[in-house]
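Explain this record to help learners:
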Amino acid sequence: GVASRVVQLREPFGVKREGDSVVVHFFTSAASRKFRELSCNPSTALLCWNPETLTYVTFQGRASELKAAEGKGFWREWMQVLYKDPQLFSAWKLEVQRLQVVSIG
């Protein structure tokens, strides 16, 4: 089935429109289990939690890794804390097929 991933949508990543589609950009390490699993099965769900509003949003769809040149445009200096080797940085795009918003606040 679809594996779920918790993501933090922090600048420059987030939700945007591309034509008639909604996409979510996110990142992971090329050395991670998440990277290996998405490479084999791109069907996934991303969960974004907002503790201030007690709301979470689930985006379901198909993920694809961005080409290196496009992915570099998402690199930010704050990511150096997460990546000792910047070559492991991998930017992805999820084409949203289903969206669910739940507010418990």
Remarks:
- The CA atoms of residues 42 and 63 lie 5 Å apart.
- The longest strand covers residues 89-103.
- The longest helix spans residues 33-40.
